[in-house]
Amino acid sequence: MKSALKAVIFDLDGVLTDTAGYHYLAWRKVADELGIYFDERINERLKGVERMRSLEIVFERADRGFTDQEKRLWADKKNEYYKELIETMTPSKVAPGARELLITLKEKGIKTGLASVSKNAQTVIEKLQIKEFFDYMADATIIKQGKPDPEIFLTVADNLQVAAECCIGVEDAAAGIKAIKTAGMFAVGIGDPQVLSEADEVIASIVGFDLQKYIEMVF
Ligand code: BG6
Ligand code: MG
Fold first, then answer.
1. Whose alpha carbon is nearest atom 8 of ligand 1?
2. Are residues 33 and 102 in the same domain?
3. Could you list the residue range(s) of the whole structural domain that residue 44 is in?
4. In-domain check, residue 1
5. In the sheet that 167-171 helps form, which strands lie side by side, from edge to edge?
6. Are 50 and 78 in contact (CB under 8 A)?
7. Are strands 167-171 and 186-190 parallel, antiparallel or unpaired?
8. Atom 12 of ligand 1 has which residue's CA nearest to it?
9. First and final CA of the chain: distance in angstroms?
10. Domain CATH for 168
11. Which terminus of the chain has a smaller tally of CB atoms within 10 A, N or C?
12. Are both 204 and 103 inside the same structural domain?
């Protein structure tokens, strides 16, 4: 028997808003200050990956070692740059089509969850003024394993009291798509089909999210 769609669980950065670009700019500033080579291709690997693990990836190209204390200092610096960038955000920064989709889901009685590993997620959600749309938001502080571990998606589904096979997960990161698939959910990727090859469907932006099509396909 087919299961029914009961919830859609969204990643935040790069899905509901373009903060993926801000994370990139903040890391780029750190890399430039340290003379470390950094480009968009390396940045792809940072998507969905928590802060200290991201730092390790950026520092792979450094020509010297860094102590743990130095690493923490640079991670804090990156976060300060990032916070400066998100400070100016307004509700106009909600990705085109995202608010409309959240409204449609509410109208249809489909639950919504947020699965972001960012410690700044609450600030961004408040700036975008979309908090009211979510039935449950996973807090980065309660998650032990980052993506690609399925923990965050399973935690959200659990709190929404919905079985994993009744959920769609939406992600812009390869690590996030892996987390969704390992959790046993239908995965919608936002971005490049080559990068997100493990997704069930890949769309260029949330505008292309075709709820009816996914329901007919799987649920
Ligand atoms: C994810 C981003 O949502 O959050 C990553 O895709 C980022 O790029 C991670 O590193 C952690 O964010 P923060 O705000 O806690 O540094
Ligand atoms: Mg993301």
1. 47
2. no
3. 20-86
4. no
5. 136-137, 111-114, 7-10, 167-171, 186-190, 201-203
6. no
7. parallel
8. 118
9. 9
10. 3.40.50.1000
11. N
12. yes
**Residues, CB within 5 angstroms of ligand 2 (ion):** 11, 13-14, 172-173
Q: How far is CA 64 from CA 29, 36, 69, 103, 144, in A?
A: 18, 10, 15, 50, 30
Q: Are 157 and 164 in contact (CB under 8 A)?
A: yes
Which of 86, 103, 130 terminates a domain? The answer is: 86
91 alpha carbon – ligand 2 mean position (Å) = 18
Q: Is 139 a known active-site residue? A: no
**Structural domain count, the chain:** 2
> Among all ligands shown, which has an atom nearest to the Cα of 48?
1
What is the mean pLDDT of each successive set of 10 residues along the chain, which is 219 residues long? 88 96 97 97 93 96 97 98 97 97 97 96 97 94 91 98 98 97 98 96 97 93
Tell me: do 68 and 161 sit in the same domain: no
pLDDT at 1: 54
